[in-house]
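Database export, one record per block. Field names are fixed; values are copied verbatim from the stored entry.
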Amino acid sequence: MTEKPNQQPPPPPRNIFLVGPMGAGKSTIGRRLAQALGLPFLDSDREIEERTGADIPLIFDLEGEEGFRKREKAVIDELTSREGVVLATGGGAILDPDNRKALHERGKVIYLHATVDQQLARTSRDSNRPLLQTEDPEAKLRELFAVRDPLYREAAHMVIHTNGRTVPSVVNEIRRRLQGKGRRKRRRRRKR
């Protein structure tokens, strides 16, 4: 008699890194995913704020985007070196090639994709987004998306679409795909 191989799903990767544009849900989904997987949750923007004692808009005001990106790079390098974490990155973290490399090599990178319209709807009342403090936030989001979408895709191991979806449905899809079960097919309702 032969034994059946263990049919347990594979364990989640040692690290899970969420990338994507502002308003895609990285922090909210990351917290719920970490909770579901029993892993600690980290947010690179919150980590920068805690270390500096200043919020992101103030850092942008005092140091400019370049100063912020230097801080972000150091934090990304440190946080991606940890083991067994879910990390939500800032929307621009992937602009730096070293960040993309560290993310891709040190864990499973999940690109949470959201259209510009969805991003605009989710960020319209948020004054904590320095890049959107402009006359035309929609044009800025389109500009950022054109530059960053290819970089998110380059870094990502998988792409998850978040438009019009609930947090639990996104978390469940990520968990299924991490276990190698792929995307669940939607059942079509038959017309009667």
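Remark 1: Helices lie at 26-37, 44-52, 56-80, 97-106, 116-123, 137-155, 167-178.
Remark 2: The chain has one domain: 16-178.
End of record.
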